Write the structure tokens for this entry.
Amino acid sequence: MQTLLSERRDDRGLLTGGASVMFHNFRYIVWLFVLNLILGWFGIMAFAGQAHGTLDQSLYADRLVHGFDLAVLFELLARPEARPLASSTEGALCLIVVFFLATAVFLPGVFQGYASTYRLPRDEFFRACGKSLWRFIRLLLVAGLVMGIVAGLLFAAHGGLVKKAGDSTNELLPFEVKIAMLAIIFLVMTAFRIAFDLAETDVVLNDQNAVRKSIASGFRHMWRGLGRLLVMYVVITIVAAIVLVAGLWAWVSLVPAENLLRAFLVSQLTLLLLLIPRFWQRGVAVVYWQQRMLVPVVAVEPLMPEPVSPPAVVEPLPSPVIPAVPPTPDC
Amino acid sequence: MSQRVVHYEIDAKYDATKQTIDATEVLTYHNLTGQALDHFPFHLYLNGFQPKATWVREAKLIGNRDTSYAKWEDKEHGAEEIKSFEVVGQGDLTKDLQFIQPDDGNKDDKTVVDVRVPKAIPPGAYVQFKIVFHDQLPETQARTGWKRDFVLGGQWFPKVGVWWQGAWNCHQFHATTEFFADFGVYDVKLTLPQNEIVGASGVKVGEVNNPDNTKTLTYHGDDIHDFAWTASPRYKVKDDGVFQGQMGPVKLRIMMQPGHWKQVDRHERITIQTMEQFEKRYGPYPYKTLTVVDPEPDSAAGGMEYPTFITGDSSWFMPQGFHLPEVVVEHEFGHQYWYGMIATNEFEDAWMDEGINSYSELKVLDSIFGPDTSVINLGGMTLGEPGFQRLSYISAASLDGMSQKAYEYYSFGSYGAITYGKTASVLLTLEGIIGKDTMDRAMHAYFMKYRFSHPTKEDFLKTIEETAGKDLRWYFNQAVYGTQVLDYEVMRIDSFPVNWYEEQKGMGKKDDKDAVYKSTVWVHRKEDFIMPVELEIHFANGERIREHWDGQARWTKFSYERKGKIESAEIDPDHKIYIDRDNFNNSRMAESNGKPARKLAHYWLFVTQWMGQALAWWGV
């Protein structure tokens, strides 16, 4: 039985171990960040085209550069020409989904890389991706269904409670109920996320074709280590929230309104840093899997083959002697 | 002061558990119409909150500020029932009451009741009506009713119509309309539970605790044309504030929600600043009290004006840079002038109270917070009143006109955009035409001349023309009476060297500073509003030229031969026109500047990327 002290040490080990595998494989985060940037870039092209068409030759648009005049922005959006904005929004939404799918496709390789003791070659990375593709699709469907239903029920309860709280004469109560319910929803959904993270890890690292077994195993272990894992996931999420708030603060407070390059760098750095926490969580899942879910190999007595008599030694034939001088062709 | 036509004496008892009022009303009416009156129409506004009433039908059809009526709920039901109606000296006429529907013929609408008196009331005579009535207040709608343990008693008693322009003016209650009433004296007794904290129009002149755990408060108001009150056991009140006005001290009573108490100073400060500005700009505030109510959160009671009584609008979270409480309190106080004293017909000329008041709001708030930051100044984002009002206007620029009846608008959104936003933008543009000082003088003259009366559109417009000494019909016909839309654009600019052919032959030097260019600017009137405009052209050599175009033709061009190409051309370079639907096309630069678009695209990029990450965070 583990002592409390050793559990805490384990927790630290999980957090630092997760961080370690994540940082050792930082290139995956960079790849996904680049993918995120490129897809985002495609996603905004229609919007950017429209904005350039209206703003590029107008002196009025300059009010958007020095400060941020909301009247100018709203006027831009209110123009009849801006109505197709909806279609450019749809384009961006499509690319958001593409990024999500791409993450799902590459994740098996990431798990493989995290579990690997050496730098995973590219071919092995993509082999892992390909091998687990169909398994991940099934996993995603199950996760989407389960988490969707749970989230739907929780949000329905949230709506009902907030509405009920609205009858109170305490104006803050609906807000407090909302925050409390969102916190509960967050914790419950994080628990489900942990279970499915463990299942994903198991599918890849255990080479498990029966996805249902990995899911069952993920939930079993999530339940067993719920307190520890949940605390770790929540801590990491808080780190993400701090990164986001700090990034936005730096953007708003430290970057002059007209300095687009610096704003771009700050915003992209924030987004890059925002990718880290989620991969840290996945690193934790991999380390946890290695520590607790890895099925131990049972030592088996090797079968001793019957001694056999060595085959008769056959004297090798002498190699044909190759003439140093090529034979002269027959005339 | 006012010509007192009515004297209401009301004794009302409010049942806080049932949200009902039982009351007796004695109305003394002074016939100053110059002719005998044989019938009297009365407003019963609370009957508007019934499923078949015109108010609810219109709200379902064209929208409404507070309630969508996707489904009917009993708590939304409001009613105003006359139990008995007696004309002193002529007997009980309860059975002779007749609901009439002068606007739309909707027989299910019971918001106007008419009574024909057996003996006509001669000119100059008085007639007294004794009315017993019962109200069922709805859960707050259109700034009246209850919410939780809060109540706002607005439009809660039978109110006689106004004899105006030779006829009774007593419209049904519509989803987009407000009110119209005669000036007079109000003496109101309110009986309600002792734990209620009460605020009301007028001056409190008495308070008595009754043995049945109720109390009776007595209010008196002179030269007002409505009476409203509010009660809640939870108000926190600051009533030690005094505004030293031109006609003596005005006692301020700020009634706050307990959760908003930290904003009490914001409310009091903006009230006093606004009162100072209004007295300076328009004329004295003549009343002795002003009650500012921060109403129940999430109620449809915020942002309303009654004589000497206004409701603001706030929330427990209200950053300093978000000036919503200031905007609402300022606006509603403004109605003490544009509605309270300049008592225009809100059914027919909504722009004359809401719009003129929005123009005043713009002037007052801009002077307090600055023109670019008077609404929002938060985290680098700014929004000023001129931009805010103009945005409202251009959201529905071509649908309706300012001068149409308030209940004939295409939608509730259009009503708001035109009566508030367009009027403010039209008057601000007018300021550019006749000059700021002249406009200020005109507004002052209008207020001083027409206070305590019911002026018409023409009274207002003629006051401006007289003060400006100009015929402004060309402007009023389009902006006030018409639905014309204004949109001028710099369609094209072009510059090429006069000796362009030499360059082609290799004789001329490229980018020769001494080269003379043939430059042309084309300006275009895209819409049907015709207005003279200024045009400013900037040349690369630093030269600036101002042109004046009468704006009559569909387009025109201005050509020059100068050392230096055109860098940019701008219509309305002093930014005096606020009714131009599209400000982006008012200028054109020779060299494009992609920075604004890149900045917006960058914001959008961040949001897109972050959303992708968030989806991937939870989804996989």
